[in-house]
Specification:
alpha+beta, 13-stranded mixed β-sheet, extended, phosphoprotein
Amino acid sequence: TQAASPVFSSKDKVEQTPRSQQDPAGPGLPAQSDRLANHQEDDVDLEALVNDMNASLESLYSACSMQSDTVPLLQNGQHARSQPRASGPRSVQPQVSPRQRVQRSQPVHILAVRRLQEEDQQFRTSSLPAIPNPFPELCGPGSPPVLTPGSLPPSQAAAKQDVKVFSEDGTSKVVEILADMTARDLCQLLVYKSHCVDDNSWTLVEHHPHLGLERCLEDHELVVQVESTMASESKFLFRKNYAKYEFFKNPMNFFPEQMVTWCQQSNGSQTQLLQNFLNSSSCPEIQGFLHVKELGKKSWKKLYVCLRRSGLYCSTKGTSKEPRHLQLLADLEDSNIFSLIAGRKQYSAPTDHGLCIKPNKVRNETKELRLLCAEDEQTRTCWMTAFRLLKYGMLLYQNYRIPQQRKALLSPFSTPVRSVSENSLVAMDFSGQTGRVIENPAEAQSAALEEGHAWRKRSTRMNILGSQSPLHPSTLSTVIHRTQHWFHGRISREESHRIIKQQGLVDGLFLLRDSQSNPKAFVLTLCHHQKIKNFQILPCEDDGQTFFSLDDGNTKFSDLIQLVDFYQLNKGVLPCKLKHHCIRVAL
């Protein structure tokens, strides 16, 4: 009995260690002298202890069916914890051998650590609020809570696809996009990759060279879905289009009064034109004469055509719009409207202002294309804009408003600052110790003239002294403009007009190019009221210096950059200010 008592006291001390630390004065604890005595009796030989540990580990990992003393002790953690601690006197246990005493004392520390982990886990679980499981069928014994790779439907997988996009100069870039990426998202991605300025005027163009057709994708259209309807020869172009939503700003310029009528209500005014187009319950109608190409033939006929929400119709009897005289030409639902690139050469069109209604199912066949031709560019723009408004409605207005809403949410410090503005430039006088703003317009004009003469004298004096001036004709002033985006080099008049038309016939759209008739001169190509005009920039001599002028030497500039900066702020002899420049980027 005396030999077995140290074992019980040692086990009790290990099991009651947490309690003894919390309540040192608790009842039932052995005295300090008893602990010292038991400590002396618990001394065991180290070699024997290691051998006993090896034997116990072998018994743990062996799948033997023998009821050893260590196996129930490994399961004793949860079993002993589930039983309530007896508050009465302890029952006397049978005597055990010293070998079994050592084996029983080994897993006690493992049980203590495991018990602390279980208590910590129970504390964390109980501290959280009870949230009902919304998917009990996923946590049943038959199905694991983790979704297997094949449990999701294949349609929800994030499919990716490579799309090749070309720029105006012929370069291309392959971009990996998701299946749900829109044209606006792809344009923003290309703007980021090509380090362009994002002014919300970039667009993705669907180009069909074999058919001679192209159109700008709407911002909400899915790129992968559009590509599935394109032939192998077709491609995407990354281009500017300033006139994409210009009809929301100036609707009067896009819809002439004689071309717009109303089917159900006759009191619609031009000020409510866009509201009537966007309202699905209203019935706006575009009417007028168009050249229509007969299907399967090369001949063209001039017919009276009207565009409604239900489709495009032509009248078989003059200008009559009676239902018995109207014949359906094309449907708006499963079709898109394109502009003809070379209608005269490819389709023998009577004018250069052609358009086409192409069904989505058509890829290479020209027999099912509904080819039309207008008399001028404004008429063609009116028909194409009305087609877009009747087909998409409020989606177009939402596409127009999204960039403006994003710009309003951005901080003014994050928006790009313009280099020049009418409201940001003031005349200053720095002749004194501190600068002052010149309020008097006459004084400001005289100060500008005086500064200009002084600047010109300084540049002349530098040339006389022999040092090369940045404004010397043989150096910077003759080549610095070639680094600007608005300068397009040696292109023809027809090519410059084509670029202007592609990037939108809006007021102030311009480019500069070399003159074909005078090798020392340049040409400014400008769009105003949907018409393209050309202005020649001639060099002139003054005090041994070469200057450039648009108005026969009345206003002179040392280089083309100064000329462009001036006419961006002042109209001068031009019909309007320079606002947008045609640009070509390399992808």
